[in-house]
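Ticket #336: bound-state structure for beta-D-glucopyranose.
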Amino acid sequence: MKRLLAVALMLCLCTGCAAPNGGVRNLRVGICLYRQDDTFISLMAEDMQRAAKAIEQEKNVRLTLTFRDAQYSQTLQNEQASAFLEKGYDVLLVNVVDRTAAASLIDKAKNANTPIILFNREPVEEDLRRYDKAYYVGADAAESGTLEGQLLSDQYAADPASLDRNGDGRLQYVMLEGDQGHQDSVIRTEYVIKQLSEAGIKTDKLATGIANWQRVQASTKMALWLEQYGDRIEAVIANNDDMALGALDALDAAGITRRPAVVGIDGTPAGLEAVTARRMLGTVYNDAAGQARNVVRLAYALAQDEGIDRFTLRDGKYLMSPYTIVTPINVSQYTP
Ligand code: BGC
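RESOLUTION: The complex was predicted; output attached.
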């Protein structure tokens, strides 16, 4: 009897699909992150762990998430993704470093007959169409840019002088951008200005610069702009909260008390704190927990091969979360 049990146990371990605790399946999900020190991505990674725990309890399965950090190198990420596929992981999740590399990753997953979900960094639709088990989980970049514009245009409508401080009937701004080639940098930058112009606000771009989503890089850029433009800057528009916070750091360091309006996107804990303290005019909530749940639930369904009809996929490929506006008025709904 004992020997029979030992053999059964060994078989289970070898096939990798069952745990010793009475036939509970162990599903393995390999997750490639573009860089783990990115604030939003690290929040998402924590939320993914929480989402996996919830599924384990609900479904009585083991759902093991294994993370790899590409440290912003596509070469390293390709190796990490290939290793997951070679080891027979059930699903591959990729936060791709360079969006143009998505096609080859999708092809690799297809050759291994492994479902692949890209998240946060969006490939072109054509790439997703290369494989019936390729999906994207994220949020609509244009929507976030439009809402960020609305934060400013609502304020302008309510109290024009609070933004147009020199009273020239125009808004002078500086723009802090995320990494080049990311849909959220390119599209947010475009749509925030589009919204302002649709709201009838005339704008002057004093400066724009890439700060790669990073607080320190943004602070360095802002310090230079403050030397150059001083209090001509009426608004700081950042593609994310970390860069908005970097701008605030530079304003603090320069000892500027009459501050321009600062807006961001994400609603990270530090971003929400800055909104509460009225150091930021507002932010646009990018639902890290919701997207993490979406990606993990979809991964689980694909790993189980249980059908994905219950997910509302746009065009059969995209699982998207809504963005929402956060101001000092409603910020408490977003803080724990
Ligand atoms: C977030 C940024 C983040 C980036 C990483 C964006 O959606 O708003 O904070 O740095 O994704 O890819």
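RESOLUTION NOTES: DSSP finds twelve helices and twelve strands in the chain.
TICKET STATUS: resolved
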